[in-house]
């Protein structure tokens, strides 16, 4: 009888440890933002583009504002520079990024110069302290940028590691693509999950199709597909068949 009780206790403890969440904290952003990196790794490893689960402790999270603005018959796409956040996550916290609603391209430009938002702990109801930096604005085709390297240099500079930045290898000049629309379609397709990719492929075949998912990746993919000329559209569709 004693042995049986011990076995039952062991099983209960084992099941409890398996059922317990491995992560201690969550970070979430509005749909107009995306989480690009967590500690210099793709956000997909920690969750998705809008919500990630993390261990307690210090983490660096990189976010970016994305939105399509419609004015009359025109559509403008806006994408901010990546914003680097340094946050301390305590156990059992659910942090959300609270940002003002932006309805025009001009408002987005003004906000990008001085990003305004707060980080709120949904469980305690308190605002959380954090450090914020933004990558320098660069011209040219953004898909050629090595954001991880830029973030590392920014972090090193902030920490006073001048030796790292001065002795590192010289970055090769960025190549400007003459097929921006084609490359942007490929970029946003690669950023999409499988459900979004499926909806996009069906939508391309039938423009009356109503997608079942809603995401910035789908909107951006549709935007660039509509903007592309026929040769780029054909090239993109050929590329899809080779994926």
Verbal overview:
The protein has about 240 residues and is α+β, with helices and mostly antiparallel strands. It has 8 helices and 10 strands. The strands form 2 sheets. Strands 2, 3, 5, 6, 7 and 10 form a 6-stranded antiparallel β-sheet that branches. Strand 5 and strand 6 form a beta hairpin. Helix 5 packs antiparallel against helix 7. The longest helix has 18 residues. The N and C termini lie far apart (about 60 Å). The N terminus is likely disordered.
Task: Describe this structure in a few short sentences.
This protein is α+β, with helices and mostly antiparallel strands. The chain has helices at 2-19, 105-113, 147-158, 162-167, 180-190, 194-205, 216-227, 230-242; strands at 25-28, 33-38, 41-42, 51-54, 57-71, 74-79, 83-89, 93-98, 118-121, 131-134.
Helix content: 25-40%
CA radius of gyration: 22 Å
Element order, helices and strands? Answer: HEEEEEEEEHEEHHHHHH
| Unreliable spans | 1-22, 161-178
Specify the overall morphology: globular
Number of strands: 10
**Largest sheet, strands/sense/barrel:** 6 strands, antiparallel
**Helix/sheet category:** alpha+beta
Please work out how many helical segments DSSP would assign: 8
Cα(first) to Cα(last) distance is 61 Å
Tell me the strand percentage band.
15-25%
Mean of residue pLDDT? 78
